[in-house]
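queue> pop job 88
queue> type: inverse folding (structure -> sequence)
queue> payload:
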């Protein structure tokens, strides 16, 4: 507050200023203690003359007083009061102006006033004005002007209450100053303001302003003070002094019969009745004033009635009534309460105040933003609607009360919106504020509808006289203005954007005019007016400003129309036209621009016809054959809901095309001939797109079917090809049903309650049904895997049996248990904290068991494949101990893993596998024996070679052509190195070195080595992880495959040994021939000659045999090969030949001698016989012949 500054007067040297000035003197240093002492002295010795002169200069113009009238301020205590005020303790000093009321003063005499200076405030009815002098610093500095150290505040009084002046100070001084400071300092930093508590402070200022306004608007309820006779008052005081209850004994007996005294008491009672009736019959017009006045009136009236009741319960009033009853004046006492109407009025006020108490009107009046206004409306009408059903507050008063609330709502909304300076706000902020404002208006309308329903219901229940329930909203004009202003600003913003630099229209001078600048200047006209002023004058100002705006904008529209027509004229097809229209679409709401494009109607309608034709073709392909159907299946959309969505999408596209035409051609386009035809075609197409028949057909089909979630959990179905299969007894249509219901509810279809319940039941059991279906499917697939892999059924038998036990257990469970258990489980929890019952637990256990079966089966299949591959490789791998051991090691490792994982029947399974391996190894042994025999029997002569080829052909036919290459490689790797035997002669003894038994031993050992490759292999075992078996001392089973040698089905094993024996026999025979030549040295010639004797036949036979035997050694070769054995006779050949020649010569010579002798003897015999013949006659021979 600006105050005149008094002239500064020179200070006498005794006021301590020298010391003060000394504080600021730069001459010489001073001690700290001296400075502090000097400061204290200066403050304590503040010259009151300075304050006196300041008051003389300040007060006369401020409080309207002459300087001589102010002398009463400066009494003897003035200096002391000023010293205390100037010191650190004092904070404020009050200058009080009081009317001087002098008895007997003439009415027309000028009033006189008294002036007082006081550190405390008191209020009296004669109070006129108070000036508060508030220090801004802890102490007053005498060398600084007091105007900069004091804050001046004028507090008015007099006839009016102080509420008006305090309200003016807060609303016009303190609050605006605070807002200005915060606005200048904050700079829009909302986050900082929130942290500093500034919004809360603003709210408190608003609440304080509102409270002062309420106090100012309150209807004053007259205070009722009951007149008490002095005698009665004295008697009560005497009774209190004697600590006794007041009674008639305390009144002098003469007065109890004194008619004058009794008349006085009677008149006092009548005065009480009138004063109380003045309060009980008090009322106000609810249609005038504000809602807070109505609320405060009833609350104040209740307090006044409570005060009257308290006075009537006082002892003084009781004694007055006792006196009148004692005097038999019953007409004054009997009807006293009834005459006052106090009871009825109190009852009515109490009931009315059920509505008025805690009325949240202050939330509206103190709201500082739109959100709080909306929240306050909800609170207010929630309170009214709730309390009207309890309180008998008349509806005829409630309607004006709501209208008064509407006026407060209108004022508060104006106050908040005006503070935002709407025309200067950016469009986003403007749109947000007005959208929020319109939302608040809609909230009001919704709340009024609810209030109207409540009011009608209450009127009907109370049986009150019918009155039209209608609320005339005071904010209707403001609502209309806000709606219009929002649309107008939207059109302006569209025009401003289109003429901006980003749209290609702004920044260019067309026809000598900058459109962007022109639009901005047109909008500047609207900034100069109050756009929310809905009064008559404000409306006229708005219309004038809008006309000026439209004049400037019309020129811009003309330029835009010219450019728009130019672009449409250069468009090559309808799509380019639509592209132009989409770019300028925001401007088509302006009638002038919309009218300029109507000539392009035919082209656009043709384009839309083509689009609609494509929609027809798309619809005629049917949903089931469209791409959307497959996408719906992938997205788990059921068929009916998918078809409805598909049809609605087509309908939405159709509406989009229709809307495009309307956007381009304007409203009423269907009135044209072409437009009407297009409209009729689209309407007919939309009828075909109606999805209601699809829904009704589905509903009829569902009602016709006997669908439900019941029956057993599992079922056994017969397959077409024979056999049975386990399945879940759950109709897939039930799953489709609840999906259909869910989607149809999303599509806002009203599904019947029975079907919804059925779908809910299906939805409840759906997770369990899907789990069971998946489990059964997995179970079936796993069994198929087991069937396809015949070798593993023994291993997974235990898990399969467990799954079958679960199936047999589930055969007795019904779906009804799941449906019924769901509702109880929602409210009743089990003791162990689990909400699942045993049926749900069965589903989980079954899934777990089948999952284990599947995992175990897949695992064992992988291991079985590895084992089978290794077993197959045993038949084709190289015939080496390393190859066989490696494969059997892989097999044994897989078996150990199976054992470690606890597969059942492993012993039996391994035994079967071992038999399979034995068969393969036995076959390999048979083959290797054949190969060995073939290799052993190989000879250089043609007969042996033919035998070998024939043997190989037989082997190939047995094993198959596939293994021919491997067998040849195997045979090639088997080479039996021939054993060389030498026939030697030593000391005239022929012998074989080494002997034939050595060859037999070597061949048998080689055969055993080849057989040992297989027979020495370690057998596979199933119990390597069984500790009990390892602890036993006796071997449970053989650990090698030696026993395979006893399992040949034919004489396979005998053959190599027979070949060896045959080969040995051949060697013996051949060597025996050579050993026969030993006789060449052992025999004596005479012995031979004597044995032969003289029989020339024997001699001739011997010579023939000698000639034949000579072929044994009489050759050019030096050795004889028997395939795997070679006889070297080089050493003995020459000696035997020489010895043989010697023997042959001797025998030939002796034979020659024998032959010569025999020839001589024969010749002699012949001669003798000749001679004998010659001496006989022929006649005698002939005659004797006849007789013979």
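queue> result:
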């Amino acid at each position: 507050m600006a105050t005149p500054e008094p002239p500064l007067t020179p200070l006498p040297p005794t006021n301590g200023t020298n010391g003060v000035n000394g504080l600021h003197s730069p001459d010489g240093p001073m001690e700290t203690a001296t400075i502090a002492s000097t400061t204290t002295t200066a403050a304590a010795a503040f010259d009151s003359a300075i304050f006196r002169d300041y008051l003389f200069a300040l007060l006369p113009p401020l409080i309207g007083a002459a300087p001589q009238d102010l002398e009463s301020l400066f009494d003897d205590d003035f200096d002391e009061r000023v010293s205390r005020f100037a010191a650190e303790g004092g904070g404020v000093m009050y200058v009080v102006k009081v009317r001087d009321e002098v008895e007997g003063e003439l009415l027309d005499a000028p009033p006189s006033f008294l002036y007082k200076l006081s550190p405390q405030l008191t209020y009296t009815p004669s109070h006129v004005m108070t000036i508060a002098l508030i220090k801004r610093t802890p102490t007053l500095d005498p060398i600084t002007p007091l105007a900069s150290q004091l804050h001046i505040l004028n507090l008015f009084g007099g006839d009016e209450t102080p509420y008006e002046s305090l309200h003016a100070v807060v609303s016009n001084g303190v609050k605006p100053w605070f807002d200005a400071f915060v606005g200048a300092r904050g700079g829009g930093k909302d986050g900082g303001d929130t942290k500093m508590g500034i919004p809360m402070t603003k709210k408190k200022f608003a609440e304080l302003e509102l409270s002062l306004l309420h106090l100012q608007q309150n209807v004053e309820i007259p205070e009722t003070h009951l007149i008490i006779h002095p005698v009665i008052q004295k008697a009560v005081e005497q009774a209190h002094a004697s600590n006794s209850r007041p009674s008639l004994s305390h009144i002098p007996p003469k007065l109890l019969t004194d008619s004058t005294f009794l008349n006085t008491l009677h008149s006092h009672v009548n005065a009480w009745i009138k004063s109380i009736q003045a309060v009980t019959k008090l009322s106000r017009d609810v249609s005038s004033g504000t809602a807070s006045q109505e609320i405060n009136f009833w609350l104040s009236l209740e307090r006044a009635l409570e005060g009257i009741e308290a006075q009537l319960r006082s002892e003084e009033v009781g004694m007055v009534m006792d006196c009148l009853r004692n005097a038999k004046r019953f007409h004054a006492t009997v009807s006293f309460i009834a005459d006052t109407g106090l009871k009825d009025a109190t009852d009515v006020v109490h009931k009315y105040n059920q509505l008025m108490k805690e009325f949240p009107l202050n939330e509206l009046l103190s709201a500082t933003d739109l959100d709080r206004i909306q929240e306050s409306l909800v609170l207010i009408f929630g309170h009214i609607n709730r309390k009207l059903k309890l309180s008998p507050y008349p509806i005829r008063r409630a309607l004006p009360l709501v209208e008064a609330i509407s006026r407060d709502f209108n004022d508060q909304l104006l106050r908040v919106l005006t503070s935002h300076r709407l025309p200067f706000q950016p469009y986003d902020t403007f749109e947000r504020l007005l959208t929020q404002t319109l939302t608040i208006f809609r909230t009001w309308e919704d709340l009024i509808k609810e209030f109207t329903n409540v009011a009608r219901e209450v009127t009907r229940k109370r049986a009150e006289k019918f009155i039209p329930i209608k609320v005339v909203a005071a904010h209707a004009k403001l609502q209309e203005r806000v709606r219009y202003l929002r649309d107008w600003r939207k059109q302006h913003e569209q025009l401003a954007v289109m003429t901006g630099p980003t749209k290609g229209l702004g920044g260019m001078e067309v026809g000598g005019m900058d459109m962007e600048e022109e639009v901005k200047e047109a909008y500047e006209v609207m900034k100069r007016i109050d756009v929310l002023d809905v009064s008559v004058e404000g409306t006229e100002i708005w219309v004038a400003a809008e006309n000026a705006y439209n004049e400037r904008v019309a020129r811009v529209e003309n330029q835009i129309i010219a450019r728009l027509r130019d672009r449409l004229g250069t468009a090559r097809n309808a799509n380019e036209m639509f592209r132009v229209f989409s770019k300028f679409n925001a401007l088509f709401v302006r009638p002038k621009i919309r009218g300029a494009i109507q000539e392009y109607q035919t082209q656009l309608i043709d384009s839309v016809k083509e689009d609609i034709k494509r929609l027809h073709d798309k619809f005629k392909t049917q949903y089931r054959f469209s791409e959307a159907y497959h996408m719906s299946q992938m997205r788990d959309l059921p068929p009916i809901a998918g078809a409805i969505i598909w049809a609605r999408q087509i309908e939405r596209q159709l509406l989009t095309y229709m809307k495009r035409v309307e956007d381009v051609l304007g409203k009423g386009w269907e009135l044209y001939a072409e437009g009407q035809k297009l409209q009729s075609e689209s309407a007919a197409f939309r009828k075909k797109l109606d999805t209601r028949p699809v829904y009704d057909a589905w509903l009829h089909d569902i009602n016709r079917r006997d669908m439900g979630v019941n029956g057993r959990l599992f079922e056994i179905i017969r397959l077409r090809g024979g056999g049975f299969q386990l399945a879940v007894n759950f109709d897939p249509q039930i799953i489709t049903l609840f999906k259909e219901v869910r989607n149809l509810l999303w599509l806002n279809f009203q599904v019947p309650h029975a079907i919804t319940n059925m779908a809910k039941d299906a939805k409840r059991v759906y997770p369990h049904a899907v789990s069971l279906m998946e489990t059964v499917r997995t179970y079936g697939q796993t069994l198929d895997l087991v069937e396809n892999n015949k070798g593993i059924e023994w291993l997974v038998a235990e898990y399969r049996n467990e799954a079958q036990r679960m199936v047999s257990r589930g055969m007795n469970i019904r779906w009804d248990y799941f449906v019924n258990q769901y509702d109880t489980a929602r409210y009743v929890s089990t003791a162990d904290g689990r909400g699942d019952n045993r049926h749900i637990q069965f589903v989980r256990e079954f899934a777990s068991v089948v999952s284990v079966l599947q995992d175990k089966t897949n695992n064992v299949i992988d291991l079985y494949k590895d084992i089978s591959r290794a077993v197959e490789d045993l038949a084709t791998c190289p015939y080496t101990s390393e190859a066989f051991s490696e494969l059997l090691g892989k097999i044994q490792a897989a078996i150990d893993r199976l054992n470690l994982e606890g597969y059942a029947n492993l012993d039996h399974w391994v035994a079967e596998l071992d038999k399979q391996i034995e068969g393969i190894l036995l076959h390999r042994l048979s083959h290797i024996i054949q190969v060995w025999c073939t290799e052993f029997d190989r000879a250089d002569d043609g007969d042996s070679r033919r035998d070998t080829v024939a043997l190989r052909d037989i082997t190939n036919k047995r094993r198959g052509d596939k293994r021919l290459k491997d067998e040849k490689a195997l045979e090639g790797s088997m080479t039996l190195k021939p054993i060389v035997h030498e026939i030697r002669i030593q000391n005239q003894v022929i012998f074989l070195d080494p002997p034939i038994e050595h060859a037999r031993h070597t061949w048998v050992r080689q055969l055993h080595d080849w057989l040992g490759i297989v027979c020495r292999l370690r057998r596979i075992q199933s119990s390597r992880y069984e500790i009990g078996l390892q602890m036993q001392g006796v071997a449970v089973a053989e650990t090698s495959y030696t026993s395979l040698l006893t399992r040949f089905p034919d004489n396979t094993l005998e053959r190599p040994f027979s070949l060896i024996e045959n080969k040995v026999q051949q060697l013996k025979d051949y060597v025996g021939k050579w050993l026969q030549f030993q006789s060449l040295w052992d025999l004596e010639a005479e012995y031979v000659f004597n044995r032969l004797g003289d029989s020339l036949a024997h001699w001739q036979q011997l010579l023939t045999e000698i000639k034949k035997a000579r072929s044994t050694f009489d050759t050019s070769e030096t050795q004889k090969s028997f395939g795997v054995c070679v006889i070297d006779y080089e050493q003995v050949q020459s000696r035997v030949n020489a010895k043989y020649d010697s023997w042959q010569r001797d025998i030939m010579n002796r034979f020659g001698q024998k032959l010569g002798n025999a020839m001589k003897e024969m010749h002699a015999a012949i001669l003798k016989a000749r001679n004998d013949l010659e001496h006989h006659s022929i006649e005698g021979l002939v005659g004797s012949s006849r007789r013979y």
